[in-house]
Amino acid sequence: FYQQAQNNILQYNEQLAPESAEHYILNFLYQKDGRMLRAETYYKNYSSLLTYDTDRPQFDSNFEVNGDGYATGLDIFWRDEKTVKNLDYWISYSYLDTERQYLNFQETATPNFASSHNFSAVGKYWVEDLKSQIGITYNYTSGRTFTNPNLEGFLNDKTASFQSLNLNWAYLIDQQKIVFLSVTNILGRENIFNYQYSNTPDQMGNFDRRSIGQAADRFIFVGFFWTLGSNDNQLDNL
């Protein structure tokens, strides 16, 4: 695969060669009687990645395409709509190992958008007597890298994991009308995505920081869905 640099880079240097990547992918799919298993493993080799020597792209940056990197990982997905009556659930897991030397990276490192482990489990159960669908979701993401100025190195620390337990309830008024209630992060876990450090150290030589997290510990949504012109509804999508 080849990819040209974005316009905000090309405005400073139109002669940059495209970045390139080689992908090697092996996948497996099994699907029968309301059950599905999908697995995929891959290796990606990156070359000619964009690099520059300033904090951000600007007119006096020295742009090159001499960066490189790799990504290897595994994705697994399992869904079962058959084993338990009225229960539909699925589980997914992904593993990622990646490092790159690109952009303004001082050394080869794991980018801060990449997390090693991602896991989610979703279940939806239909209660016939209550004309209701009850759902539960659990999400887990391992910590992401960030640069801690109180330690030596680049992208030298990791945030805590992200975890969220979510519940929802959908009540079927009739075939076309649904009342929906959901609560995200019902346990109120404080998830931290990154940190912002002060520009100058304190008297002890340490850089103070504040956490960057969610706008609210919990989020509650109440909605009404009305499907017009059809006997179908949105229950499968809730």
Helical coverage, percent range: under 10%
- What is the general shape? globular
Strand content: over 45%
Task: Give the SSE order as H and E letters.
Answer: EHEEEEEEEEEEEEE
- Could you report the average pLDDT, rounded to the nearest whole number? 93
User: Main sheet, how many strands, which sense, barrel?
Assistant: 10 strands, antiparallel
Ends: how far apart? 36 Å
Q: Total number of helical segments?
A: 1
Per DSSP E runs of 2 or more residues, the count of β-strands stands at 14
Query: Strands of the largest sheet, in order across it?
Result: 1-2-3-4-5-6-7-10-11-14
Short description:
The chain is mainly beta. It has one helix at 7-10; strands spanning 2-3, 19-32, 35-51, 64-80, 87-101, 117-127, 132-141, 145-146, 157-158, 162-174, 177-184, 192-197, 209-213, 219-226.
Give a verbal description of the structure.
The chain is mainly beta. The chain has a domain at 1-111. The protein contains 1 helix and 14 strands; from the N terminus they run E-H-E-E-E-E-E-E-E-E-E-E-E-E-E. The protein has one helix spanning 7-10, and strands spanning 2-3, 19-32, 35-51, 64-80, 87-101, 117-127, 132-141, 145-146, 157-158, 162-174, 177-184, 192-197, 209-213, 219-226. Strands 1-2-3-4-5-6-7-10-11-14 form a 10-stranded antiparallel beta sheet, with no helix packed on it. A hairpin with a 2-residue loop joins strand 2 (19-32) and strand 3. The mean pLDDT is 93.
